[in-house]
Amino acid sequence: MDRALSIGALARHSGATPPTIRYYEQIGLLRRPDRRDGGHRVYGEADLKRLTFIRRCRDFGFPIEQVRDLVSVIEDVDRSCTEVRDLARDQLASVRARMAELRELEASLGLLVADCEARCAGGPGPDCVILEDLAAPGRCCAG
Amino acid sequence: MDRALSIGALARHSGATPPTIRYYEQIGLLRRPDRRDGGHRVYGEADLKRLTFIRRCRDFGFPIEQVRDLVSVIEDVDRSCTEVRDLARDQLASVRARMAELRELEASLGLLVADCEARCAGGPGPDCVILEDLAAPGRCCAG
DNA sequence: CTTGAAGCTCAAGTAGCTTCAACTCTTATG
DNA sequence: CATAAGAGTTGAAGCTACTTGAGCTTCAAG
Q1: What are B62-72's pLDDT values in tens digits?
Q2: Alpha-carbon span A133 to A2, nearest angstrom
């Protein structure tokens, strides 16, 4: 029951778009599928499975090159699942680092907005103390 | 006291790199500076101030095109500081949205790692239930 | 005067796709 | 069977915000 899928059908089932699928094929992340007489790509269940895996990894934020590693872990009988765990741990760490950066950014931006409310009366550019602060070397109002 | 700065000195004082400064010049975010006889760029305090402002906006996560707007707010006498506040508010909202995404990602990755610990004994690829889950359509272990 | 650091220009590379132009193929309907 | 819409094809360029590289010139210190 390995029903044939067009690129559009594969896209719908996997959550990728047709151009993305062609792109993955181009960079060697997906195999080159069989073609119909007219040249249209034909996919099967195995392709859907693999693409689903790839999309899921991408949703997890893994960069393409790491996805390549992960795919090879799946297909290589000799490599272990703990490799996936370790890669996921690394990924978790970088997600957390990025979140910490964003938290700082959030705090700074919040301060900037608050300062704009408190210290400026909505005056024009050159009179605004906030804009002056932003342009001054050293620490900034929300820095 | 408008001491002259080389591109390297400007870089050190502003936190940008020389290539980045040249890039900003190329895209019209910084004016074209005067040159010495040998062709080297010469900057002044005004350039440092402007670049500091730009870098700070970039650190806040504003995209280049919005920085362009912000710079014009500064230089246009008729436009008000509240514009900056509004842009900062928008930016704050998108930072928060991005953070929410990352929080979900963190939770999912955490689950993935936990599942790998709990359900797999570190077996090889084809035997790992986690890898199966990731490739299966529909919901995933940490989905 | 020599040497090494810093600067110059222009071009290409990075990630991860998306979008475009200019076609061809398939499928549904009349 | 004709036709028109929609889906598919290709290769190339575009996107963000820079970074890197090649190959050369200039500057500052000793």
Answers
A1: 899 999 988 88
A2: 65
